[in-house]
Amino acid sequence: LCNFGEFAFGGDPWHADGGSGTARVGAGAGGQGPRAVFKRRGDHAEAGLSYVAEFSGDLQQWTPSEAEPQVLSEEGGMQEVSVPFPALPPGPSAQFFRVRVEFVAP
Questions:
Q1: Buried/exposed code over 14-45 (b: 16+ C-beta within 10 A; e: otherwise)
Q2: What is the pLDDT of residue 30?
Q3: For site-directed labelling of 91, which of 10, 42, 45, 81 has its Cα 20 to 30 A away?
Q4: Contact present, 9 and 49 (Cβ < 8 Å)
Q5: Helix (H), strand (E), coil (C) string for the chain
Q6: How many C-beta atoms lie closer than 10 Å to residue 106's C-beta?
Q7: Single pTM value for the model
């Protein structure tokens, strides 16, 4: 990850860990289906960071999540959050996700 990504996902820019542990697929409670799980800064709004989970069925077309991230846990100034995999427009079902982080002036 670049330094911005390390900052956004709580990594250490001095340690080459490749961003391990920043995002994963988790199971939804009560059979709700898969969820995108990722870390974000607890002070993301104050830091001017916007996180958007995007989903794809083919790695070509990406659809941003409209769901509000659910906070699963908080530790060390970081939050672990999740959003459900959505139903996509006609075509392949969502199989992949990525997290886009942008800086927006606070």
A1: eeeeeeeebeeeeeeeeeeeebbbbbbbbebe
A2: 65
A3: 81
A4: no
A5: CCHHHHHHHCCCCCCCCCCCCCEEEEECHHHCCEEEEEEEECCHHHHCEEEEEEEECCCCCCEECCCCCEEEEEECCEEEEEEECCCCCCCCCCCEEEEEEEECCC
A6: 10
A7: 0.83
Residue with tokens 């104050």: 46
- Please give the Cα distance from 9 to 24 (Å, whole number): 13
Which amino acid type is present at position 71? V
d(CA 88, CA 57): 8
Name the DSSP class of 3.
H
Amino acid identity of 19? G
Which amino acid, one-letter code, is at 94? A
Question: Is the pLDDT assigned to residue 13 strictly greater than 80?
Answer: no
Radius of gyration of the chain (CA): 14
